[in-house]
Design goal:
Strand content: 15-25%
Radius of gyration: 26 Å
Number of helices: 8
Structural class: alpha+beta
Largest sheet: 3 strands, antiparallel
Strand order of the largest sheet: 2-6-5
Shape: elongated
């Protein structure tokens, strides 16, 4: 859907309605809340440093946070290069640069936010096992998730739409009947019931005309 928005829907709207702002509405489903591969999503991260080649699916973007010591914005990258020495088959010592992900612990340490234990004094794990971040000090993952830059991370759909200068909204949860597409499908089904003999062949032959008729806004109203 992100690609459809990028390559088709947004460009088509802007061509048809220049200098206008579109309001894109989506069902409030988990699919529409999916994040981009480079998004700030703590659940995709490891606690400690780890080799992280460019072939990894998730490549976290740089971020900006407010430094506790200076109260100024600081840019933070999540990767660094480490020189690894290893002997080849002939016994020669070779030095190789390996790209590493810093890990949640290092990320928080750089922000002077690493606590290392919960309110009861228990050592932090990567994840405490609780589904929600109700208590942000319960584990390293939930603590990072509650940092403003991670907490304010937008979904992939919302980023594409907002970055294009348009408006992103979600329908209320569990109220799919609010979706305008329901009126369209309802009108299409009405046309089918009125003009189809209920055979698959007839439906196949007439489906395009049913959909076209349903697309007439005056007809739907």
């Amino acid at each position: 859907m992100v690609e459809q928005l990028k390559e088709d829907a947004i460009g088509l709207f802007e061509a048809l309605h220049p200098n206008c702002v579109a309001v894109f509405l989506f069902d409030n489903s988990s699919n529409h809340g999916a994040f981009a591969d480079d998004a700030l999503v703590a659940s995709r991260m490891t606690l400690n440093e780890k080799p992280w080649p460019l072939s990894e699916k998730f490549q976290f973007r740089d971020t900006v946070y407010i430094s506790r010591s200076t109260d100024m914005e600081e840019v933070q990258s999540f990767y660094y290069e480490k020189e690894i020495k290893k002997r080849d088959k002939k016994g020669n010592l070779k030095t190789k640069k390996v790209r590493y992900f810093k890990g949640i612990r290092k990320i928080l340490e750089e922000r002077s936010l690493w606590i290392g234990h919960d309110l009861e004094g228990k050592k932090w794990k990567l994840h405490c096992g609780a589904p929600d971040r109700v208590n942000p000090i319960c584990c390293a993952l939930h603590f990072l998730e509650n940092c403003p830059d991670f907490k304010n991370q937008k979904s992939a759909l919302e980023e594409v739409i907002i970055n294009s200068g348009h408006v992103f909204e979600l329908y209320p949860k569990y109220h799919c009947e609010c979706n305008w597409i329901e009126m369209y499908w309802g009108a299409a089904k009405r046309e089918a019931r009125l003009k189809c003999d209920y055979s698959f062949k007839s439906l196949e032959e007439n489906i395009d005309s049913f959909l076209d008729k349903a697309g007439d806004l005056a007809h739907i109203q």
